[in-house]
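[Meeting: bench + compute handoff]

Bench side (C.D.) handed over the final construct sequence. Compute side (W.E.) agreed to return the predicted structure before the next meeting so the bench team could plan truncations. Sequence as handed over:
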Amino acid sequence: MSSQDLPAQDIGPKDLTHPTSDVVEDPRHLDTASQGRLIWLSFRKHRLAMAGAAVVLFLFFVAVFVEFFAPFDPHEFNSTKIFHPPQMLKLVDNSDGGFAIRLHVNSMKIVRDPLTLQVSYEEDLDEKVYIRFFGRGDTYRLWNLFEMDIHFIAPVDPDQRFFLLGSDRLGRDVFSRTVFGTRLSMSIGLVGVAISLVIGIILGGISGYFGGIADAVIQRIIEVLIVLPSIPLWMGLSAAMPTDWSVVMRYFAITVILSLVGWTELARVVRGRFLSLRSEDFVTAARLDGSSRPRIIFRHILPSTYSYIVTAVSLAIPAMILAETALSFLGLGLLPPAISWGALLFEAQNIRSIVAGPWLFAPGFLVLIAVLAFNFLGDGLRDAADPYAALGE
């Protein structure tokens, strides 16, 4: 075969002005990719971080639509269903002697031991509660704006009840209450970190950019707050709140307390980035070009710290969630009728609840899942904050 029969090949230099995804994947051409693209390429290789991101997004999605995901009113009580045990979802229904695929749970009846007179629940195989997705149930107001009655799961007969996670000492559905607790517990972490973010960026930026006396004063304040034990400080500030405050006032007070204590780590991250960036060539060029200090800070330095700030925020949110849970568990945070994971755990800390309803600790597992998901997400973002190092391995 002669050389004329060979297919033509493009052996010239490639145009890297508009790189394709294959070119960006090649470590030799990483200098053509944007910072966001590099961070994404590094982040998606972290499987635990991707799984954590999926869990976090799902929890926030549930927090936004808790009324839809909760099958029943979380405040509805039933004196005949006190400490009702959890019911297992079943798919195969052979009650009529045949075989059918119908989602249901077996009802439970109360039985009393003739010797000890102790009351317990026993599964009733003859009575079933059939369940359907996107069914009609209790009426609610979504975001206190739209009146609806569609639930993600609901009994076919609206008068029937089922307890996927059992009931509490007042016969309230623990599953519905746990779903509703997602809104307060997740939002208090998000709002608290948002306040801490503003304080941390302002004070950390001033400390890192200006230095001198301002840096010394801010760092001493940070060191004092870090040295103080967190839980006693939270307890002292929370105990100072009036007991007659409404749920909304107490919610914002707890958020402010956690924010005023939790901004220190974020401020140190921002200060470190400002210290390393203020002497870079692009900052010097902007200063020589006559840019004002606010423009240099907000237009040139701060955007270069976004990836590190996002990482610090993702790691600070679980700390906020744990702090709220700890305060509510100790009776110093959100109190009934507020529903949060910590407030639900507060109701499960007596001996009777531990013995009669161990399923009341179910919100604790959600706290564990949320904290692990945020930590995995934060670890992935922290690795992706230096995408060149991660992709160049």
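W.E. noted at the follow-up: Residues 6-24, 388-393 have pLDDT under 50 and may be disordered. C.D. will use this when planning the next construct.
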